[in-house]
Design brief:
alpha/beta, 7-stranded mixed beta sheet, 7 helices
């Protein structure tokens, strides 16, 4: 069985019931959890969001015995060790560019690609999970991601933002873009994609 991947936009109020039910059924190993920061220096913020996300899992009925924060407080070697030993890696939100830089410099990119752990990404983390990542705040807007899934996403989609919509349409001329509204999720396992919530596929 291939490992479980999850790409998330954002969950302001915790995991929706459909997402929580999927996690309870499919995330069968949940002893330890490793969060990967996007800003390795903003410890207070990342600690707050890690605690919040761990609480989301608990309220969904998925209880981790422990979790770790992979950021600037630990060595690259220790971060790689924790990522390879954990049951679940969670790539946090924030700035995609700073996160992918940390992943590459630390060796976590290679470690995560080779681990059998479940890998989830939220917002920036979900962007970076893709084979081809898309970040419309950067130039160029596409770059090589971790290659965990051949799914390019745009999180927090708001169709009223015309500049955002134009950037999505431009990139979708070359590859499909899944524009995800908050409280949506894409799960990938055994070459099967499961879509939850409001997700619009742009493809020209």
């Amino acid at each position: 069985m291939s490992r479980l991947l999850g790409l998330f936009s954002g969950f302001p109020r915790g995991f929706p019931p459909e997402v929580a039910a999927f996690l309870r059924e499919h995330l069968t190993q949940h002893e330890s959890l490793a969060f990967v920061a996007s800003n390795v220096a903003n410890h207070a913020k990342t600690d707050h969001y890690a605690a919040t996300l761990n609480d989301y899992f608990a309220k969904a009925g998925v209880h981790f015995s422990r979790y770790h924060m992979l950021d600037g407080r630990i060595s690259f070697a220790h971060a790689v060790q924790l990522a390879t030993e954990t049951d679940c890696v969670f790539l946090m939100g924030g700035n995609p560019a700073t996160q992918i830089q940390y992943l590459r410099e630390s060796g976590l990119a290679q470690a995560i690609a080779g681990t059998h752990a479940a890998v989830f990404g939220l917002s920036a983390g979900a962007i970076n999970m893709a084979k081809t990542a898309f970040d419309d705040t950067q130039s160029p807007s596409t770059y090589a991601g971790l290659g965990l899934a051949d799914i390019t996403i745009h999180p927090h989609f708001d169709p009223q933002k015309q500049d955002e919509l134009a950037a999505i349409r431009q990139v979708s001329a070359k590859r499909p873009i899944y524009a995800m509204k908050d409280e949506s999720a894409i799960f990938v396992q055994n070459e099967q994609n499961t879509f939850m919530g409001e997700i619009i596929k742009f493809q020209q």
